[in-house]
Amino acid sequence: MWRSIILIFFLPISTFASFPVEINLCQDTIIETKKETTEEYKIRIEKQLYSNSEEIDVFANKNFLRIFSGVLVALGLILGKASEDASDFENALSLGIYSILLLGLGGILFLIDLIRRDVLKRKS
């Protein structure tokens, strides 16, 4: 009996491959070896240093309003569900009002984000 238990536990360990295995790693990146002249380097550095700061700020936070409006809408939906489950009428009414306010604010922020993106797209 003990021999069969020992055999069940140690048989998988003893059957591991002990010969060298060739590993082929596929690289998904291509290394470009394009040389850059000093003039091109100076132009690139000047573009990075003296770029328009408004342009940098806009692209750094481009999804903030959309994410924030989504969070507000999600909170509004959660409060709406909680207002349905509330046993007291006053609690249900207050949760319902908060839910409607959050849904409305989330929708307004989403529309502001859409308008802002459209203005930026037309500007550039």
Task: Summarize the helices and strands and which ones pair or pack.
Elements: H1 2-14, H2 38-49, H3 53-60, H4 64-85, H5 89-123
Describe this structure in words.
With 124 residues, the chain is mainly α. It has helices spanning 2-14, 38-49, 53-60, 64-85, 89-123. Helix 4 runs antiparallel to helix 5. The mean pLDDT is 77.
Features:
single chain, mainly alpha, 124 residues, 5 helices, 73% helix
Mean of all residue-level pLDDT scores: 77
Q: What structural class do you assign from the helix and strand content? A: mainly alpha
Tell me, briefly, the overall form: flat
| Helical segment count | 5
* H/E element order: HHHHH
Q: What is the end-to-end distance?
A: 79 Å
Number of strands: 0
Radius of gyration over C-alpha positions, nearest whole angstrom: 30 Å
Largest sheet: none
Poorly predicted ranges (pLDDT <50, ≥5 residues)?
none
Short description:
The protein is an all-alpha fold and 124 residues long.
